[in-house]
Amino acid sequence: xxxxxxDVSPEVAKAIKDGKAVVALESTIISHGMPYPxxxxxxxxxxxxxxxxxxxxxxxxILGGRLKVGLSEEEIEYLGKAKDVIKxxxxxxxxxxxxxxxxxxxxASTMILAALAGVKIFATGGIGGVHRGAQETFDISADLQxxxxxxxxxxxxxxxxxxDIGLTLEYLETNGVPVVGYxxxxxxxxxxxxxxxxxxxRVDSPLELAEALKAxxxxxLGGGLVVANPIPEAYEMDxxxxxxxxxxxxxxxxxxGIKGKExxxxxxxxxxxxxxxxxxxxxxxxxYNNAKVAAQLAVEFSKF
Length: 304
Ligand code: PSU
Ligand code: MN
Description:
There is one protein chain. The protein is an alpha/beta fold. The chain has one domain (2-301): Indigoidine synthase domain (Indigoidine synthase fold), CATH 3.40.1790. The protein has 13 helices and eleven strands. Bound molecules: pseudouridine-5'-monophosphate and manganese (II) ion. Manganese (II) ion binds at residues 139, 141, 263. Manganese (II) ion is lined by residues 139, 141, 263.
């Protein structure tokens, strides 16, 4: 039945069947998160880092209406260049499929496709969350509901302060989603190692993390988990510079009346513009760091 919609690449299918470590990667970061050609370069380097750490990468997208788990280099290149790829969250999937369109998957939809294929560990940059001003706008990313329900662990660099980090943590708590600091007691804020908010639990090794995941799912405690992995110190951005860029971006979005699915890409692009490209370098390095930790976690998890 799933084959009617889903194509798992032969390499990824074999790894899953053999119980080997597999790491999912999203594609909105390729099509909407970074400019060409650095988006493609980053996506391919992430795959290499995952392989270098003993796991098989599975980049996820929808191409011509087919759900794809495991893309070829040509498909990644295509996604990185194409102009009409649709940012695809949970609600969009059936229409992208039925209309045979190309869709770049967000954290939410990447989790859905990963779970359909049997992939449990996923590396990305940052998750969506509760936006600043959500009390008025109701702008809460579908990523959070997906984390509540879908059994995939998401390794990220925390939440960007384009979001209301405090409210994002409250939302995750209500939905039973653990927020784990990888070698940190403080939740990182994407470009910076600190956010001023703590994490629920700290873990210091991939094995410790794998054991908690195993216990969660063995006990039928469904849903995902946020693994917050701080950006390496060498690539961290200046806290004040990034905070002021984010303030300007948020107020410009408000003035321009940006809403719905446009809001996150607009804010990301503004912050990048305001920091003169520095944020792109940091963004790429933190994604590499997440790919590495996700691969190490997947390797430990595959031993159970
Ligand atoms: N945050 C980032 N970079 C990103 C995204 C979020 O720092 O590229 C993308 C991810 O794909 C995430 C999506 O799942 O934006 C969230 O969009 P929304 O807020 O519309 O749910
Ligand atoms: Mn939103």
